[in-house]
Write a structure and sequence with these properties.
The structure is a homodimer. Chain A is of the alpha+beta class. Chain A contains 19 helices and 22 strands. Helices cover 35% and strands 20% of the residues of chain A. In chain A, a hairpin with a 6-residue loop joins strand 11 and strand 12. In chain A, helix 8 packs across helix 10.
């Protein structure tokens, strides 16, 4: 399908210049990310795809975009028309390698983003002449880049680019190039530097070789290592990272390759500072680079098993943006702290469509769940005391104000929400949301009981009352929780018929229609079972699987991996393996059809690894 | 408050140049509308406010705006710094008159938009010198106009103007000025002409008078009448219009003035072609000039009693755009015809916020109700047979596909809708929507029974099943219909406390919070009682009043007038009079605070007149 060759520690392909390959062969080190756009590739201003983690700039009002940065690894060659292209990405060394030939010469190009000193990146081109010819090779920085912001309403395609870098000053002095610029509104002042080891024009005799190497930095430093040293140090750091990863059965090289690809994707996008990870990491500007619950629920449990320090960064970002979340709650006439549905580093709501941004409120409880999961996994009680506890308290206060007390039924209603299943309309009492909110409240009460935070007696009484009386839709007939108050009223739907061509339903059925059909986009009650299994008896969990799995369209990339987790937990090994395979090859085989145009699905990688972890 | 002097057949003021006066002294003849911007008034490019009914142009995608047209009645005077301004608008003659003086002279200016030949408009300035001075007076057309489109999300103020007229060619030949231009995307090619009776520079001796008059057309004709003839013919036509209006008690000049102001507003905005009326008529570009259900439910019942031909135009527009409504339904994976929530002449959905555009679906049943109301009032069976019946049929088909059959309860659910009360969230089984949909289906079944349309037997059976089994929320405790499935779950709210300062709640409470409070923006169940009183026993209607009226914030301008109607119908004369007075003075006294910035509330005028009609 995708033309990928699978090796135990690498992927390779002859299809080097497609958008799909630019996504799959993406490189990142958590600080910098680059789509696989190499010398001679044609790329428009918004397609270079070099990003820095946390580098966002304002588009309008408080809406930001992840900045497309000047391409530090640009190389302009006079000998064009490449053929016999081939490229590989090595998960052990982190090296992207591409080879091609022309009438004149054989070329071998490689590129590294350092895992040992994450401000560094470099590349090397080796040319071997097949006949005498003059080659001009300019190792450069391309600052002619623009952004192409993705509309929040993703049904409309944006065609308007916007320049988000300004005041560009480029200086060449000897073998150093220095680039200073700022982002458009002055949010970031940046200084890049690049040390050229060769370049210019050269006559090559037949059989003669020429190597052009350079190392660049995003922190403007003058003293840069040589390319080979940087590459060696990076590989060593990466080796140490792989050593910390759990062992798994790698007897099947195709599966081993896919597993390592997914883990490597998580490694490449793991921040080394207290920020979160966008839905597409650093691999694409989709969703304007914004952070979602993807980080806490889909990526974080996988990071806990491969690089817990990344999990901590993600959570520290939420702890540090608690004040913003409190402002957000106040702006919505609520108490406590309400995390935004999507946000960049400024932690301000970026979702411009009301029904989503205002209704998918479960993200706040997801953050609290993840904090607790981290503490449980690491035993880091100091983190809980000094950081997490205050979040528990303020988010629990939010939930108290968000529940509506219903006198008639003496219960607490969770009105006008959307759960994880985005094919459901705005509805009431989504079980996932309410149960996660209750879990959030329990964490606050528990923290208060242990003296980590203080709560007023009235507050505590109200919280306990909500734990007792929050309405949870349940079906005796189904023997398990209902997704929400509306679920049983929805129209029957022939899912297998409608999914015959494999494409997502939302391409053919408008949301207004989808919301009235008994069809699920991604796990909702089943996800609740994964996160809080203690809420389910074995029988209720099996019943949930039987009711919901067959109605799930998996039109979200976050679906397959979590279904693998649930299937394995429920002893459904065959179904689990089927889901796990789909999850592992979701990007590699472009199974959702959007890896080319949107980049890597980092949350889906995390979900796939969560599925795999069930097998260990 | 607003500084208005009320005369039986006119309003007057000394506050001539405020935005409020520009709205209140607006003139229109249904074809052309002009805000009251007169010589020496300062107006930016988007503030001239000359509009033509049906003249819309594309902004982007399929979104249009009502075009700000070149100002045909522009007059530039050298003698500035006016003082002692006063102006009046005469409802009998349609003449706007303004007087002022300067150190040099006394001025008297008047303006007419013809009610006898609606493509004509003209003005006259009379100057009487207080001392000798040189006056330059240029009677001109100002084509330096732009649009300032109103964001669909009205919480964000737009500051970006856009030029929607292009290819402007102005020619002066003798005493004729000729202006040809097109709208930006070429949707309209327009030809204006203007005949000048005087102008230029003139030395005036003390006591000497000078009159400058001109008549202009929007159809480019060469032969234009003189100003005085045009004014006389217009007044005569208007006299005939007033003669057709019902009689009412005009013993109180203040009330008489307000009543005539509201009727005159309806006259000034009544189309003379098959189009509808924007929420602000031709008095302002608010809502981009779009048509809403305001026309069918709030204006139309009033037009039926004063100018039924306008009611017919409004309805013919809906009949003629049935095909577009069918395309709209198909695009939403539904059958039949679905009218857009807001639209311009192209009849394409203009609402860009999903929850409103997709959920306020009652507009389709409102159109059917209005068609039936017209037929009942006029007895025009030919209109019903040739135009309305097909609308009944296709809209009924839409409703059949929009209801969701619920096997568990053996009923039809109306899922994910918003009723007239816009403070309610997206909810299920809004009683107004379902009852109006049932009424719509009944109209189709009745038309089929009488052979006006054909329906398949299966369709008819399904329609009858829906009439039997559509879920209608009802409270035995309240003794009347519930607004929707969510109403009883909402949180109690101290409305009188919150409304102390009189301003609309949405200025202080965000919608996410408002939707969970038991507070109503505008009549919902009470409106249903007005439109379909046969659904209510006297007791149920009184109970509805007792439950809902006290919870209504009247934060919609459509609220007071309809509460007057309901109060009078229920024998609550004192409450009815209170509501009627507020409704009649809503614009005149700027009681909602937005008549200045948004123009005249034509729907509210219709509602006020509906209230008044209950007294006759």
């Amino acid at each position: 399908m995708s033309g990928i060759e699978y090796r135990a520690w690498a992927i390779a392909t002859c299809d080097c210049t497609s958008e799909l390959s630019r996504s799959l062969f993406f490189q990142g080190n958590g600080k910098v990310g680059m789509r696989a756009v190499c010398p001679l590739d044609k790329a428009r201003g918004h397609e270079h795809g070099m990003f820095m983690a946390g580098c966002f700039e304002t588009l309008h009002d408080s809406i930001t975009d992840m900045v497309n940065l000047p391409d530090l690894l640009c190389m302009i060659l006079s000998d064009k028309d490449p053929r016999s292209m081939h490229q590989s990405l090595d998960f052990a060394t982190g090296v992207l390698e591409r080879t091609w030939e022309t009438d004149n010469a054989l070329y071998s190009y490689e590129r590294v983003l350092s895992f040992s000193d994450r401000a560094l990146l470099g590349h090397r081109l080796k040319v071997t002449a097949k006949r005498g010819f003059m080659l001009e090779a300019k190792d450069a920085i391309d600052a002619e880049v623009v952004n192409l912001p993705v509309n929040d309403d993703q049904t409309k395609i944006n065609i308007h680019t916007i320049k988000l870098i300004a005041d560009v000053e480029m200086k060449e002095e000897g073998d150093m190039v220095d680039l200073r610029f700022s982002t458009a509104c002055g949010t970031h002042s940046l200084h890049f530097s690049k040390h050229l080891e060769a370049g210019g024009s050269k006559w090559l005799e037949k059989g003669e070789s020429w190597e052009i190497r350079s190392v660049a930095s995003i922190d403007g430093r003058k003293a840069l290592p040589c390319y080979d040293d940087m590459k060696r140090a990076s590989a060593k750091a990466l080796e140490a990272m792989w050593e910390k990863v759990f062992r798994f059965d790698d007897s099947d090289p195709r599966m081993a390759s896919a597993i390592r690809f997914n883990i490597f994707c998580l490694m490449q996008n793991a921040p080394d500072q207290d920020i979160s990870i966008g839905a597409r990491g650093l691999s694409h500007g989709r969703y304007k680079g914004n952070y979602f619950w993807d980080a806490e629920i889909f990526m974080l449990p996988a990071y806990l098993k491969i690089m817990p320090e990344a999990a901590r960064h993600i959570l520290m970002f939420r702890c540090m943006s608690l004040d913003k979340a409190m402002e957000n709650a106040a702006a919505m006439n609520l108490e406590g702290a309400r995390y935004p549905w999507m946000c960049s580093t400024q932690a301000i709501e970026q979702c411009e469509s009301w029904d989503t941004g205002s209704c998918e409120i479960h993200v706040t409880a997801d953050v609290a769940w993840a904090l607790d999961a981290y503490v449980k996994e690491t035993g880091d009680l100091e983190f809980e005391r000094s950081c997490a506890a205050r979040v528990y308290k303020e988010t629990a206060r939010y939930w108290v104000s968000r529940f509506s007390y219903d006198k008639v039924s003496d219960c607490y209603q969770m009105l006008f929400v959307k759960g994880p299943d985005e094919y459901c309309g705005v509805t009431c009492n989504n079980t996932y949301t309410t149960m996660m909110a209750k879990h959030n409240i329990k964490l606050a009460l528990d923290a208060a009981r242990r003296g980590l935070v203080s709560l007023k007696p009235g507050e505590m009484a109200r919280m306990k009352d909500i734990l007792d009386k929050a309405r949870i839709p349940y079906s005796a007939a189904l023997g398990t929780y209902l997704e929400d108050d509306t679920y049983e009223k929805l129209e029957d739907f022939d899912l297998s018929g409608a999914k015959k061509d494999g494409s997502a339903l939302y391409h053919r059925i408008c949301f207004d229609r989808l919301q009235r059909l008994k069809v699920i986009k991604q796990p909702d009650v089943i996800l609740l079972y994964i996160l809080l299994p203690e809420l389910f008896t074995e029988k209720q969990a099996q019943s949930a699987w039987l009711e919901y799995e067959k109605r799930t369209s998996h039109d979200s990339t976050l679906s397959w991996g979590m279904h693998a987790v649930a299937a394995f937990k429920l002893g459904r090994r065959k179904e689990g393996m089927d889901y796990l395979r789909k999850a592992l090859f979701l990007d590699l085989e472009n199974l959702m059809g959007n890896t080319a145009s949107e980049g890597l699905h980092v949350g889906a990688c995390g979900a796939a690894i969560q599925g795999l972890l069930q097998l260990l």
